[in-house]
Amino acid sequence: MMAGKVWLVGAGPSDPGLLTIKGKDVLEQAEVVVYDQLVGQGILQMIPKSAKKINVGKYSGNHTVVQERINEILLEEALEGKRVVRLKGGDPFLFGRGGEELELLCEHGVPYEIVPGITSAISVPAYAGIPVTHRDFTSSLHIITGHRKKGCQESIDYKSLAALGETTLVFLMGVAALSDICRGLIEAGMDQTTPAAILERGTSARQRNVIATIATLPEEAIKQNIGTPGIIVVGKVCSLSQTFAWAEKRRLSGARVVVTRPKDKASTLATKLYDLGAEVVMLSGTSTKPIADNSQLIEVLHTINDYKWILFGSEVAVDIFFDSLWQQQVDIRSLWNCHFGAVGPATRKAIEKRGIRVTYMPEKYYGTELGKGVAAMAQSEDQVLVFIPKETDSELANYLSTTNVHMKAVPVYDIIYEENEQVCIEEADIVTFTSASTVRSFVKTMKDTDFHKVQAVCIGELTAKEAALYGMKISVAKEATIDSLIERVIEISMRGSYHRFEQ
Question: For residue 229, is the peptide bond before it cis, meaning its omega torsion is within 30 degrees of 0?
Fold first, then answer.
């Protein structure tokens, strides 16, 4: 068997928007992903579901898997002919031990590529309003590791650093040694009033910044209970933080929002939340698969002229219907006498992309509302065709079955529930739900979650009622639209309060 290939990919500091385009492309084609603890959850959600995932759990002071074993894992997986991505926080060659991981690959002739990442040494200060270089404040930038190699007694050369004069010093992996670093610089002759900062969980929703001097920073960090991961910045540029602060001025700064819509349907919601400053974590929970050898669907396609109304509750059903028409060689002109109904704007857009105008879409985007509207418009002799998911309740079909409408419901796809592997729900997170089905998907995906602590923002009362079944803390969007959902997220994040849904 031919050897595979290894890509060392820098994942950046945490914010998925800071992953490079090449890094994202390589990750999406990976067959094996070996990742660290510091890789952001938003980036971990980009790993293909089909990929083998190996968490080597490296973070400050704790290596779940020792470096030598990580090197061996990369070699073993590559020798099996796999496309292996070694996903590392920050940049793989900046105190990321990327060079060590290449040595064994070189010995065995395994091909590899390096995909540089945006280092926290520059990006985290930037998110705190600190430019690491500025002509009026510094003539150089120096990046130092605060974490020494095991067994190495060599200390940081503070005298040389202090002798640099007007400079910027960035210490990575040095939070535990903060007091030693500040004391070492002062004892080496650095002015104790030199501005300094410690930046915790930079670029994430939980980012915290403490700006002080090298004399007072250790005490201030203790007061604020600053922990890891974090970086230390020393130099006059730290005094610019208040002037250049920008990240916390965004409307959703500090909010982490979990988007539960399927990945291919979540782009608008996720993009708008991200642009407002939220840390967005995608949690689709489900995927869809067309039903194979669907005899029911084939039968109705060849008798499509019998139906006056064709109703869709999702974009997935639209695509399956039109693709099946083509596969069965049924001329689209057979639809000339049909009226089309769509549950909402996304479904309507999917229909109209096929060159068909939608006759009816309800003002409130629910299956029941679509059913009510069509039941009022349809003639007594009209045949109504509804496409639904298999083995899942359909609000649209359920409602129409209670009316005098001649309705035929045809299952066209399976919903596959996916088990969560990377996302951990924190109590301060906001989880968005756009339908009752997304609530059910979330519950099945997050099996070990205490749902009473989940802060849910829902579109519509039906979605809220479903979330209430699991005891979630619920707030409901004023209108059944994405923009209204986002406004509700903003309101909730600003006031930080939630209420139980009243049935």
Answer: yes
Q: Known catalytic residue: 36?
A: yes
Residue type, 170: V
Cα 212 to its chain centre, rounded Å, is 33
Looking only at the bridges linking them, the beta strands covering 339-342 and 455-458 are unpaired
Residue whose structure tokens are 């906001």: 430
Beta-sheet pairing, 383-389 with 309-312: parallel
Point out the catalytic residue in the list 15, 36, 91, 429.
36
Q: Delineate the domains of the chain, giving CATH numbers in brackets.
A: 5-118 (3.40.1010.10), 122-248 (3.30.950.10), 256-285+418-495 (3.40.50.10090), 289-417 (3.40.50.10090)
DSSP string, 271-296: HHHHHTT-EEEE---EEEEEPTT-HH
Among the listed residues 58, 82, 364, 473, the single catalytic one is 58
* Token pair recorded at residue 171: 């210490």
CA-closest candidate to residue 339, choices 302, 383, 403, 404: 383
CB-CB contact of 248 with 493 (8 Å)? no
Inter-residue contact 407 to 380 (CB < 8 Å): no
CA distance 410 to 294: 9
Identify the CA nearest to 278 among candidates 181, 380, 207. Answer: 207
Closest to 95 in 3D by CA, of 51, 132, 142: 142
Rounded Cα–Cα distance for residues 111 and 437 (Å): 45
pLDDT averaged over 10-residue windows placed end to end, the chain, 503 residues = 87 95 97 92 88 80 77 95 96 90 94 96 97 93 79 77 94 92 96 97 94 97 94 97 94 93 70 94 83 94 94 94 95 94 91 95 88 92 93 83 91 84 84 88 87 93 91 92 92 65 33
Contact 295, 324 (CB under 8 A): no
Provide the total of helices (H) and of strands (E) in the chain, helices listed first: 18, 22
The active-site residue, picked from 15, 82, 91, 173, is 173
